[in-house]
């Protein structure tokens, strides 16, 4: 059976549905949620980032960083950056810290402000 990484998104309508959604849709929503530092902290608090099967799933999700899947991400910068950070054991340990979360939020806010300032000039 083909994985969603092997199925073109346009062919996803032939995929089985889970709760009314295709695997492609479920994985897209999940991977996009990784852009949120508070969600990463939640995953750490639930101890999911310590589970080998979940770590393997995060590794599997790296297919979103390549075409044709990349174009479906609403916020590819923070989504893919955080997905890459989640591949590192030290980051998975550190994200439980509220200070680490606040630092990521601050970085994201600064990046957004800088982007808007660049657009104005």
TrEMBL record:
Keywords associated with the record: Activator, Nucleus, Transcription, Transcription regulation
Protein location: Nucleus
An annotated GO BP: regulation of DNA-templated transcription
Pfam families the record matches: Med31
Gene Ontology terms, MF aspect: transcription coregulator activity
GO CC terms in record: mediator complex
Main location: nucleus
InterPro entries given in the database record: Med31_sf (IPR038089), Mediator_Med31 (IPR008831)
Physiological role: Component of the Mediator complex, a coactivator involved in the regulated transcription of nearly all RNA polymerase II-dependent genes. Mediator functions as a bridge to convey information from gene-specific regulatory proteins to the basal RNA polymerase II transcription machinery. Mediator is recruited to promoters by direct interactions with regulatory proteins and serves as a scaffold for the assembly of a functional preinitiation complex with RNA polymerase II and the general transcription factors.
Subunit structure: Component of the Mediator complex.
PANTHER family tied to this protein: MEDIATOR OF RNA POLYMERASE II TRANSCRIPTION SUBUNIT 31
Protein family membership: Belongs to the Mediator complex subunit 31 family.
Name of the protein in its database record: Mediator of RNA polymerase II transcription subunit 31
Naturally occurring in which organism (per UniProt): Coniella lustricola
